[in-house]
Each structure stands twice: as structure tokens, then as C-alpha cells.
Amino acid sequence: MSTTPSRALPGGLPAPASEPLTAPYWVGTRAGRLVIQRCRGCGGWQWGPEWVCHRCHSFDLAWEEVPPCGRIYSWERPHHPVHPALNGHTPYIIVLVELPQAGNVRMVGNLLGDPRQEIGIAAEVEAVFEPHDEADPPYTLVQWRVVG
């Protein structure tokens, strides 16, 4: 896990929505920590954030820090910008990362490095925390990098 001063994404993208449900996640990323929800009732992990447990329907959810590492479950290489700020910044790689130390929940993110690199399913990846301090409000994105 690391924080990178150079950014994978250009400026001009909209800031993530600020809402009470996701606030603990964004506070964690600003501190260089990966946190996701865990049910206090059944112990199950879940992502994305919800008010209720996906398994037992309990409302007793907590945010817990998890190791910022996982493996690639799936990926895609978009060649068309999905936002005007991405014009001239394609292709890029989007990965679905499975977190084995958190019940194998999966998170979507960008894979850093050469956008034409070979991608291996099950390749080990680590989180890179990318600050966007100039945004209002400031936020930090979780990007992924192949280990080794």
C-alpha cells in the first residue's frame, strides 16, 4: 500500500458524492486506509456500502480496516472516455479486485501502469491511495497496482 504523488486520473472529474453512508470509507482513504463494512450480527463483509447486511438483514454494520491487497477477479480496457475530463486519457484499465482477507468481497478500481499491459486473472494487486487535494471537498481514490 502506498500513496502516490503522481495521479492516474486527470483533474476535472467530479468529486465522489458526499453522504453519511459512505463517509467512513472516504475518511479512511484520506488516511491511507482501506475500510469496508462488516456485519456485527453475522460477521459477513460487504461492498458497496448499504444500510442493511446483504446476508442476515441486520442494521448493525461497522466499518473495519482490511489489508489493502487483493487479486484481480476480472478486468476491462475502455478505449472511449466516459467523461469529458478523460478525453485523451484512454485506454485505461478497470479491474474488479477480490479481497481474500475480507470474505472475498470485490471492489472496482483502476489499474495503474501501462494501459496496454497484459492482465492476469488472479494477479496480486495492492492499493495505491491517490489524493485529489485540489477538489472541493478533497478526496482520495483507491487505485490498484500489480505487485512485483
What does this molecule look like?
The protein has one helix at residues 23-30, and strands spanning 2-3, 34-39, 45-46, 61-66, 69-76, 93-99, 105-111, 124-132, 139-146. The strands form 2 sheets. Strands 1, 5, 6, 7, 8 and 9 form a 6-stranded mixed beta sheet that branches. Strands 3-2-4 form a 3-stranded antiparallel beta sheet. It starts with a strand and ends with a strand. The protein has one domain (17-146). It has 1 helix and 9 strands; from the N terminus they run βαββββββββ. The mean pLDDT is 91. β6 and β7 (105-111) form a beta hairpin. The longest helix is centred in the N-terminal third of the chain and has 8 residues, at 23-30.
Short description, anyone?
This protein is mainly β and 148 residues long.
Features:
about 150 residues; 9 strands; six-stranded mixed beta sheet; three-stranded antiparallel beta sheet; mainly beta
